[in-house]
Structures are given as C-alpha cells and as structure tokens.
Specification:
115 residues; 3-stranded mixed β-sheet; 2 helices; 6 strands; 18% helix
Length: 115
C-alpha cells in the first residue's frame, strides 16, 4: 500500500491530512478493508504531533470505533505500507461574522420570501 498525502493546518492546534493521489493498494483485501472503514489513514489518536499513519479500527458492540491501532505492514499480504509526506498548506479564515438570533431570523425570512 502506498499513500501520498498533504497536511492542512487550520489554526493553532487543528490539522488534517488528505490523500493527494489515488491510493495504491497492495492487495484486494486491503482495498476492501479500507473502503469498508476497517482500516483508515490519518491521525489515529488525538495527539497530532505524531505523523499520520495507517491504522486498524476496532469497534465496540454498537459499531462505534473503540480503538485505532497503527500498522506498518498489510495484515493480509504482509507488504510494507509506504506513507509519503507531500506539501503542507495553511487554511486561513479571513473573516468571520457572528449573527444574532434576530439577524438569523431576518436572513431566513429574506431567503424564503425571495424564492
């Protein structure tokens, strides 16, 4: 499996990753597990000072993700997983307006009335 990704920084403590080219799967089983969300890519834990990784998701009885365990080899064909760091981007919010409840109601009424 081979993933090339970019990092998107949003503010001081928020960052995310995104694949920038199609993921190259080592085997059909890995592709199925990835597409079914049993295996994921990104930050497996809340601590984002570590680089992103490929991880196996364990789920609890409700189907919610219970734990994410980093893996470096495919659990199906044993091929090494290759993660390539691409560019880093900074997402900048230039303007933000907080609307009061009255402004929100007037805005909705204008949109509905204008249709």
């Amino acid at each position: 499996m081979k993933i090339t990704y970019k990092t998107i920084i949003q503010g001081i403590n928020a960052c995310d990753t995104e694949a920038i080219s199609p993921i190259q799967f080592c085997c059909d089983s890995m592709k199925y597990a990835f597409d079914s969300c049993y295996i994921g890519f990104g930050y497996a834990h809340a601590f984002k000072e570590y680089p992103p990784s490929v991880y196996i998701c364990t789920k609890d009885y409700d189907g919610e993700v219970d734990e994410a365990i980093n893996i470096i080899f495919c659990p199906f064909c044993a091929e090494k997983i290759e993660i390539i760091k691409g560019p880093t981007f900074e997402k900048v919010i230039t303007h933000s307006k907080v609307m009061t409840d009255v402004e929100k109601i007037e805005y909705v009424e204008q949109k509905v009335g204008g249709v």
